[in-house]
Each structure stands twice: as C-alpha cells, then as structure tokens.
Amino acid sequence: MTDAILTTPVLYDFRSDNVAGAAPEVVNALAAAAIGSADPYGQDPLTAGVTRRLSALFEAEVTVFPVATGTAANALALSALVPPYGAVYCHQESHIHVDECGAPEMATGGAKLVPLAGECGKLTPAALTAALAGAGIGVVHRVQPAALSLTQATEAGTVYRPQEVAALTDVAHAHGMAVHMDGARFVNALARLGCAPAEVTWKAGVDVLSLGGTKGGCLAAEAVVFFNPALAEDFGFLRKRAGHLVSKGRFLSAQLDAWLADDLWLRLARHANAMADRLSQGLAALPGAELAHPVEANEIFVRLPAAVADGLEAAGYRFYRWEGDLLRLVTAFDTPQAVVNSFLKIAKDLSEKA
Ligand SMILES: Cc1ncc(COP(=O)(O)O)c(C=O)c1O
Ligand SMILES: C[C@@H](O)[C@H](N)C(=O)O
C-alpha cells in the first residue's frame, strides 16, 4: 500500500465480513445475558435453548457445540470424523486448506488434507470420484479416505445447490467417508437458495455443519451442529482438550440465540447478499470490468482497470488484492446501500476518466 493510501481516511472497508460490527439485537442479548449468574461450561439455559432452536430450524434432533471461531469449529468437527491416518478431501481454495494454519491437521492428529480443483470454488462428483479411485483404500502405505469437506457458501462466493451437495455426499458415503460442511457463510447461501436448512444439509447427506454466526452479525459465535449423533459422542472431550470449552458459555449462546431468533440471521444475510448483487452489477457494467465468479452470496471477485482500482483505494475504499489481478470485495449485514451507491459512482467517474 502506498503511503498516501495508508494516510487516507477509510471511506468503507470491503475487505471482509470479518471487519463488520455486530447486530444490535445480538449485542443487546449479550448485555442481558451478562446479568446474574448461570451454570458454566455450556450447562446454562441459553445453550439448551440454542439446541432447541437449531433442532426446530433443521427439522431434526441436532447436537450442538458452540465455539468462538470458525477455525475451531472446522478443525474440531474434522477431528470427530477423521483418524490421524485419515484423508480429508476438500477444495484447493478451501479455508481449511489455505487459511487455518494447520489447525485441521493438528486437531486430527495429523490427517492429510487432499485439495482438489474445481471451477468457481466448487467440488464436483467427477473430481472426487477420480481422486478416490487412486486413493489406495485399504493399502497400509496410504492415508485412508475419511471425510469430505465442503464450504457453503464457497470461498469463491458461489453456492452449492441441494442436488449438488447430495451428488457429492453420495460419492463420499459410498466410500465410507463422513461429510463436513464449513458454513462460515452458510446463512448467505441459505438466503440465496431460499430453501429449508435441512434440504441443503442433512437431507443432502451432510453429517456435521460448522455454522458461522460471526460473519453474519454475531460478535464471535460459531456452532458445530451434528446431524449424526453417533459422530458427536466424543466431541465434548475433543473441544475441552483443545481449550475451546468456554467457561461462561452462555455468552456464546446468547449471541447465537438472538441471531437465530425471528429469522434475524436470514434477514441480515439477505441484506448482505443484496448489497453484493447491487455492487457486482454496477461493477460489471464498467468498461474493462470482469467478474471472475458468479456472485451468489456476499463475496465479489472482480478484475477492474488498474486506474479504477487504484483510484478507489486512493479515495479511501479498502478491499483485498487477491491472486493475480483479482480484487475481492465482501459486503456485510450492515453495509449501507448509500456506501455502495457512492462507491459505484466514483468507480464510474474513474472509468470515464481512464
Ligand atoms: C470460508 C471460511 N471458513 C472458515 C473461516 C474461519 O473463521 P475464523 O476466522 O473465525 O477462524 C473463515 C474466516 O473468515 C472463512 O472465510
Ligand atoms: C482469512 C480470510 O480468508 C477470512 N476467512 C476472510 O474471508 O476474510
């Protein structure tokens, strides 16, 4: 970053939904939960309430374990599915493979992540089948296929349809593998699909979901949601051993409870997605602009003429310079439409001057 950019006041930060604040409903619920005492270590009524809420939302008796970060949710969920000699098949751009600093490998005791290619951040049954054909199942020299991990919405901002999830989980289950879903942006995918949560999870063969609340409007709250109770039996020990059993667990659950109440999670995600739609449509209309992937959630990957990208940064907007000449812009539950409009007007002016 040039010195000028570092000293320019930030007009708006599109780098990530991780830079967003927290929804007032969640903050107020947290303040209310801070009064008085409550049983520790997840034995409180709020945590029981979150399990009830998620069982109702997913139309199944689920087993829920709140944790504080998405990486913990992913790594610990995989540790419940995969032995140390196991293999986890994932996309080559998956967060568990690229951005978790070896946490899944550590939590599983050394399991191997097997990254696969796929257009627009999505795995295909053909690629998974081909990888498994050469896996050496039963061969003592080889790591043994144990889990498939899908990210929904993907790291490319795309969304798996229920039938796409089912086609992948069919291959995984046929090879004796369990299925994990990294749902750091699950609610953004759900808002786009408009289907019931069950349709794109357990009814499509997903065994465990890392449900992300942090990016969706919580301060820091994620939930590991098991649809297959047999896989959850040891998770309480795995979470405690990793130091992720929060003593005042009510404070994670208060966030999740408020976020899941009255469809707040979906309303917030719909807004984030709508801002991404508006922003990406405006950018795509600029001469020389090119969207790298369909915008199906709240992430935009776009190529812009250098003068436009540089000018936007100099004006005070922040976004990531991604691989190659891609830019990544992420909208959030609280991205103002006025900010999107101003950003697009400046981009258009810069484009006309270029
Ligand atoms: C797709 C995806 N999965 C998981 C995570 C992990 O979340 P955390 O940063 O809370 O560990 C992120 C983080 O933003 C993410 O983008
Ligand atoms: C680490 C970085 O990728 C983060 N998960 C984000 O999406 O902003």
TrEMBL record:
BP-aspect Gene Ontology terms: L-threonine catabolic process
Residue intervals of the Aromatic amino acid beta-eliminating lyase/threonine aldolase domain: 13-304
Essential cofactor(s): pyridoxal 5'-phosphate
Reaction(s) catalysed (UniProt annotation): L-threonine = acetaldehyde + glycine; L-allo-threonine = acetaldehyde + glycine
UniProt keyword list: Lyase, Pyridoxal phosphate
Subunit note: Homotetramer.
Top EC group: lyase
This protein's name: L-threonine aldolase
Listed EC numbers: 4.1.2.48
GO molecular function, a single term: threonine aldolase activity
InterPro entries: ArAA_b-elim_lyase/Thr_aldolase, Low_specificity_L-TA_bact, PyrdxlP-dep_Trfase, PyrdxlP-dep_Trfase_major, PyrdxlP-dep_Trfase_small
Pfam family membership, one: Beta_elim_lyase
General function of this protein: Catalyzes the cleavage of L-allo-threonine and L-threonine to glycine and acetaldehyde.
PANTHER family (alphabetical): L-THREONINE ALDOLASE-RELATED (PTHR48097), LOW SPECIFICITY L-THREONINE ALDOLASE (PTHR48097:SF5)
Family as reported in the entry's similarity comment: Belongs to the threonine aldolase family.
Coiled coil stretches, renumbered: none
